[in-house]
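Quick one: examine the sequence and fold tokens given here and explain what the tokens say about the fold. Here goes:
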Amino acid sequence: MSHGSSEEGGLSQAAPDVNTQELLDTSTESVATPRDQVPPAVEEASPSSTSSFEMIDMESGPAPYQEVQPHWFFCRRADDNTSWLPFSRQDSDKLENASYTVGDREDEVVIAVEGERYDVHVKERKRYAVYWEQGPTEVRRCTWFYKGDKDIRFMPYPEDFSERLEEAFMISVTLNEWKRKLVSPNGETVILHNPKLMVQYQPIGLQDEWISSPSEQTRPRTVKRGVNNISVEIPVGEPEKVDHLVFMVHGIGPACDLRFRSIIQCVNDFRSASLSLLSSHYKRAEQDGQIGRVEFLPVNWHSALHGDATGVDEDIQRITLPSISRLRHFTNDTLLDLFFYNSPTYCQTIVDTVASEINMLHTLFKKRHADFNGAVSVVGHSLGSLILFDLLTNQRNGSRKAREAVPSGEPFDLNCDTLQQTLSRLGLQQYLDTLQAENLDLETLALCQDGDLKDLGIPLGPRKKILDYVRKKSLSQAFKTEEVHLPEGLQVPPQMTSNADGNHSSGFTMQQSQFHRAQSVTSAVDYEYFDVGIGQVSIDYPQLAFHPQTFFAFGSPIGMFLTVRGLKHIDPNYSFPTCKSFYNIYHPYDPVAYRLEPMIVTEVDLEPMLIPHHKGRKRMHLELKDSFTRMSMDLKNNVLGSLRTAWQSFSRIPVAALPPVDEGDATSEGDLHETQAGVCDEAESSGSAEQTEQPEIKVGMLNGGRRIDYVLQEKPIESFNEYLFAIQSHLCYWESEDTALLLLKEIYDKLGVAMEQSQQ
């Protein structure tokens, strides 16, 4: 019969092939037990697997009973797999202390665990995520465990059955009476042979006289008491002090790596890598209490775009062909995000979701960490980096005037239409009463945001039509009054146009290169030609509740998108209005990543900065490659030197054969030799030019004058075939220790904490 996962946390696992005859022979010689207490499995067990259990010399006498030390675990379910993972000792102690007070209180006891990213409801025995949507998981106070030889982890028993086992164990130790048998709620039989030998048998469906022992149908499992007797890695607790907060925005699709894991799981890995690097590279500062930790929180926008609110998945599904369904589903779920971002309707949804999620997470984090006074940074991967780039470009600070499309001091005018005429033109007459009930006219309607119309009960489609119409009319009026301003440093090169007199003038005109589109209210495409380059979608960019300290881009296509939008050059003096540091980090084989420094410094071909290995050295294959390069350059220089010497010997005429020359001829001959030597010197210098280091060059103010492009070191196996590892290279950043160390170094350098040199 098959045994699935039970409601108690999945107690059923594949049973191992274990028999216990030799073990029982040893134990029965020293302890006399009534025959009816021993199951039939004991009589006909095969002596083939005694190595599965530990033996104890019962002649030494029983040890005094000591109460078992509990440890708290939480359940994690993935597909059909169920596993139990331990809390850190700090969190387990907090939960254990709180469990003693549960009986005296009527309300729920909530304990923050795992860096306060989760809350445990002690009475309910549930663990809830704080910063993201995730179903509650079960929590247990664990004392007894079981595992078979084929199982990977020990599984805990339910708390009530563990108490029964502990009580039976205490009686057996106190009275020195063993071979006790207990039956779990799921029908499993547990036999306590001695303190070191305890086994569990699976339940048997229908027993009859033809079945003499359970071992013919089931195989026993190992039973252990206490977390100290099982092989489990208890995680190290995280420091309570948070030095820096980082928000991480994902790219296209719901999965972020080749294992199709979500942004939450990938950020968890990145956080774990950063904690490990802090212990190794900032060990002294950590021991002195000088630093705490860096908190990384995921920002998910994909679910909002593809949720029921937009209905875009249903619309796409209706027009999707039935063939190659899996490939088409993958395309609809991932690659179409690029096209959605270039749509004014869905781009507004994406940007609003990212900004609102970041602001919400920031507010919630400050509420749970009232003493936090550190800075905040943002990280974007792939398309997420482009979203953050556009968002940061359109931020406003106190010294910069807000860009307003409507001139101040003039009344808002939509071609003098009334609200009723406007709604009739849009085909939305049914919402006239709703808007008039709130005393809304065209002027106040222009001040409404999407959330305001949503609160009035207007569906998404009509909301987008109204806002799109108002925005287009606002831009049209702004162009007429020349009130549209370009962000400094990200301006599209002006185009030369000719007027009626034949004179050339620079700039855009309303009819030609300002729009290149019709001002039709039925058009769903609206592109802004004055905001960060041609092709920038014209939307309302929300403002962040804080000024980011640093913006890190992983595998970013920002450079490509800016070029496609018509931006050929970034002004070296340009910087984000509210963020003063920017790093473009990429893998050399990443097919999606593009550089940014060539768009700022066009006169010099700069190599990207090589990110150091987290162990403090170059990778071995790169060192060998550099060594071979130096050897070839040295050989080339030696050959050139020998050729120069030979040429000088060949071209030198014997002195006795020289006729007398005047001073002018001597000068010409000297010039000839100098020219020949200069040619050879030039050849030699050109051969060694690659060895000279390039001077320090400022690459603009996007990163405060510092370098922007940083490249990772490829692994040795990746260097054999760069095409084979191209996709993996685009998804490697979440587990890259080199990337995590670069972030930590940038963060703690600004806090005045220097990184220790790695001893590895």
About this structure: The two ends are 53 Å apart (CA to CA). The chain has a mean pLDDT of 75. The chain is about 35% helix and 15% strand.
